[in-house]
Structure formats: structure tokens, C-alpha cells
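Minutes, project check-in
Item: structure for the 161-residue chain
Input as provided by the requester:
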Amino acid sequence: MKVCSRLFAAALLAGAVSVSGAQSFSSGLRAATVLPSPVVKLKPGEIVDVPVTIQIRPAYHINSSRPADEYLIPTALTWEPSGLDLKETDYPEPELVNYLFSSQPVSVYSNKIVIVSRFAVPDKVPALTELKGRLRYQACNSKACFPPTSTDVTVAAAAAQ
């Protein structure tokens, strides 16, 4: 009887831990954080790199921009119109990692990554103080993936002197 009681208590505790983990993400805990970026200097007629650094919490990963499985949500950085011409966005090389939930290696990012967007600055530099965007990603741990989420991205910008 004591063994059954202990097993029941352990099962309840395990359920409480998994529920509290799910509640943490639903109440605002983020698996990835956008770190502050340096001020981007806008020079007329030039291409400017806009780096966005993302710190991923230990024990978590986010899907790469090109996940191998079609059911996984890719990481995507999008930008609001700003008067600059977005030329391309370069994502880092992903890691290929084996997880229990997939029969093939999963294409992921972990630790810290930098996504770089390149913008063409027009000859007449728009009066900008910041570039605004949105990072969409799906976070996972070694056992399961969480619903996709998005976070705002803001990078300070100024005309070069």
C-alpha cells in the first residue's frame, strides 16, 4: 500500500511539474529573448547590415528557418515598412540534432544566434529613429514543442554623420 501511495504521489508531482512548465510559457516566460542591438548608421545609397541577436534559454531550442519536418514552425524575422529596401535576411547555419519526437535529425538553433537583415538605404535617408520588426519562432525542449510565439524587435537607427 505504501508503494502504491508513493507511486501515486510521484505521478501527481510529475503532473504538477509538467503543468507548471506549460503555465510558465503561457504566462509570458520566453524560451528566446531578443538582445539589444547597436544603433544602425544609415548612409545614403549604401547597404546596411542590421544584426538581431537572440539568446535561447538553456535546455531549449528553436526551430531553424528551414526545419526538416513540415509540421515544425520555422523561425522568421519580418520587418515593418520603413522607407528602406529590405534586400535579404541571412539566418545562421542550424544544428542538426536527434530528438525522441522525430525519426530524423531536427534543424534547430540553440544558445545564441545572430540573424542579419540587409537593407538598401535610399539617396535621401528617411527620418528614422528605429526599425521595427517581429520574430516568430517555435520553442522546444528535448521532449516536446510549444505553440509558436512572436516577439517585437526594435533596432535604433540614425543617419550617419
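Outcome recorded: Residues 2-26 form the longest helix (25 residues).
No further action items on this chain.
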